[in-house]
Amino acid sequence: MIRIKPKSAQSKKTYIAGNNSATLNTQNMKFKVFLIVVITSIFLTDCKEKEDPAPEVIIKIQVTDSFVFAKSGDFSFEIDASDITATISVVGAGGGGGGGIIGTKKTNSTGGGGGAGSGEVKLFEDIVLTQGATYSVKVGAAGNGGNTGSHGGDGLSSNISLNSDVLFSANGGKGGRSDDVNVVNGAVGGEGFVNGKTGGNGEFLGTFSFNGRAGRGGIGGVNTSNLGNGGDGGIGTAIVNLTLVDPEEGVKGNNGFVKVVWTGLK
């Protein structure tokens, strides 16, 4: 046995070396430390690989927007949002006023044309719409005013459809009427969702009378939305100093209307 004194004089520890056992113990300690480091590294790497990924967070906000269709014709719209609810207004077109009645005699003036009916007004609330679907819109054209002695044209309906199925619609108003030549009484107003008024009457000329006032045109129907109103009727034939004054044409109605106000998540 060999006793090895430490180099430091202050140390009183004695190391005993036999068959290089001190060197072997140091190598074993280094190997153990290295092994612990390797195992720890493998464990941590394995834990990271097995760790669940963070969940994806999707944030949606509520938005409100609208589509307005005020010109007659065919249109479409689609909405890129989810959970859509809508308020939909649909108005049919107004009819055209009837033309003033033609007069050919100097014995009486004639009646005015009838006013046209207004279009229908419909309101649809809490309507669920489909995301990305293409909805078709038809805005009804107004009825034209009638020429003198002729009836006014009918207003057309307005609607919204999906895949050719009509979902929401409103009817148009009927045109005002005219009447036969030389009729004194005013013509009847057109039916609508507010009817047009009957035209005013003309008058017979009395003895030594040279003037006859024409019947005024009937007022067109005005609905609650003030959209899709009916046109007024034309004034009848007047007589001024025994001269016939030509009647007037009826007034064109107002086009229909469609509005979609929607709320959804985007």
Structure description:
With 266 residues, this protein is of the alpha+beta class. The protein has a domain at 69-79 and 89-122 and 131-261. It has 1 helix and 12 strands. Strand 8 (158-162) and strand 9 form a beta hairpin. The protein is rod-shaped. Residues 1-26 and 33-38 have low confidence and may be disordered.
How would you sum up this structure in a few lines?
Helices cover 11% and strands 26% of the residues. With 266 residues, the protein is an alpha+beta fold.
Rounded to an integer, what's the Rg over CA atoms?
Answer: 46 Å
Mean pLDDT: 87
Question: H/E order of the elements?
Answer: EEHEEEEEEEEEE
Give the N-to-C terminal Cα separation.
87 Å
How can the largest sheet be summarized?
4 strands, antiparallel
Instruction: Give the total of beta strands.
Output: 12
Helix percent band: 10-25%
Strand content: 25-35%
Structural class, by secondary structure, is alpha+beta
Biggest sheet: strand arrangement = 3-12-5-6
Task: Count helical runs.
Answer: 1
Shape: rod-shaped
pLDDT < 50 stretches: 1-26, 33-38
Task: Please write out the topology.
Layout: E1 2-4, E2 15-17, H1 21-50, E3 62-69, E4 73-77, E5 82-91, E6 121-129, E7 135-139, E8 158-162, E9 165-170, E10 238-240, E11 243-245, E12 257-265
Antiparallel strand pairs: 1-2, 3-12, 4-7, 5-6, 5-12, 7-8, 8-9, 10-11
Keywords:
266 residues, alpha+beta, 4-stranded antiparallel β-sheet, 1 helix, rod-shaped, disordered N terminus
